[in-house]
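A favour, since you know our structure tokens better than I do. Go ahead and set the record down below.
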Amino acid sequence: MSEPPVPAVPGGVELVTGDVAAARAFYAELLGWTYDTSGDRTVALADGVPAAELVAAAGAARWWAVFTAPDTAAVRAAATRAGARLRGDDVRDPLGGAFRLRAGVAAAPPGPGRPCWYEYMTSTPADADRFHAEALALTVGAPPGAPDDSYAVLAYAGRPVAGRLALPAPLAGVLPAGWMVYFAVADPDDTVARAERAGGRALLPPRDVPTGRVAALTDPAGAVFTVIRPAPAA
């Protein structure tokens, strides 16, 4: 008999890029980050609080969602049973998405310039929901009042920790499948304008959604992320 699944939740973000110096300059301008560098490790700080880690590596630049669990070995085993492929800390799901799994990752408290939400983008929502339930032990459900299952909330112990978006055809041609990282900002419109001046690109211009005002961007190296001004709490 297999062991009950162990929950894993998003706890941090990591940028892998070929030019850390260029990334530091871009995100300092965009999100107000400062940096703490020790050896090869660069930690981005938002108002003195660790917000992200920047890692130099060859290949396409990308933002990684970093998940954490009290027993990463159990999560790795559950993910493998659910069809994932593992390589080091990387967990590549059978649908084309990927995340990193580590123990002891502390999520940043809410605030500007910090990661504030994680969302899985997919064209196969039922398969994605099944994987995240089996591999990460997260419950999946539609938000109250939702007209359909195009959006779902992933929760642990009754607390929402991430979302799942079924990409409609227009968005599926623009946004990559897999985990999207959201950063909190005061003014998404201004953030997009500054990103474009600094060499970034708007994939989706600022727009209002039930959770706030959002815009999807790439940095100059092509790493995709979203900025959001969260809607006021009800």
